[in-house]
TrEMBL record:
This is ABC transporter permease. InterPro entries: BP-dependent_transpt_permease, MetI-like, MetI-like_sf, OppC_N. It is found in: Cell membrane. Keywords: Cell membrane, Membrane, Transmembrane, Transmembrane helix, Transport. It comes from the Bacteria. It comes from Herbaspirillum rhizosphaerae. Its main location: membrane. Residues 99-289 form the ABC transmembrane type-1 domain. The chain crosses the membrane at residues 28-49, 101-127, 148-176, 268-289.
Amino acid sequence: MYSKLTQKIAQADTPFTRFLQGFFSSRIATFGFILLLLILLAAIFAPIISPQNPYDLEHLDVMDSRLEPGKTSMEGNLTFLLGADDQGRDMLSAILYGLRISVMVGVTSTVIALAIGLSLGLLAGYAGGRIEALIMRVADIQLAFPPILVALILLALTGRGVDKIIIALVTVQWAYYARTTRSTALVERKKEYIEAASLLGLSPLRIMFRHLLPNCLPPLIVIAALQVASAISLEATLSFLGLGLPVTEPSLGLLISNGFQYLLSGKYWISFFPGLALLATVVAINLVADQLRDVLNPRLQGQ
């Protein structure tokens, strides 16, 4: 079935089908893509497929707290397939909702950081001079500090919340895109099509976003994919430390933190299953990003 799929893709010779053929030529990347697709579907449809709404405190029973996997609730109306946490919350439902928040935070912060870093990088690479020096020095200062340190300082100043952690993640991410875009723009700016566009009297904004931007996108797509996994991991770390999302909106990191104190007492499932979900998400994204890097970079093809 796998070989038939690749053969059908190869029959239509277009840039998109060649991209699909190159991407799905790796079984590991295909596995990562399928796993990532399943995780995204589980996160999107969490309210539909979850056995319980973990945010509805009225339907949580403290008598169900820390029940082992496979046990039935005291009322007999729910089986905890992955066990229950210390609040009597179904772990499967909590993980699905936690995936939803973690993926949303990771994707949203990456998209915003990409838009900001791409715009500043294009401006620096095309304009040059003092504008380039100013933008790059700010990016250098940003990259000089560890991302988790910057995020911790911002969250300590602004407080907890989804919007606060997205701002913190955008702050630590935008410099990567700015430097990459600027490096690519410096190479592309010297080419003939940019010179021709300038001679035709096109505006700088049109040259940057209509002609320069498409040639800067391939490396940015790879970095953005990797940064989604990095943002999810960083958000989980901050939530684990107690500076991420509030208790009423638990992400995977907060779920792991809630069960950390029970690991030595044998209640492993409270931290283990959320940690497994986080690991699967990061691994799937990295597998897809690695294959995107190989397909979008012609220098790596055939190696």
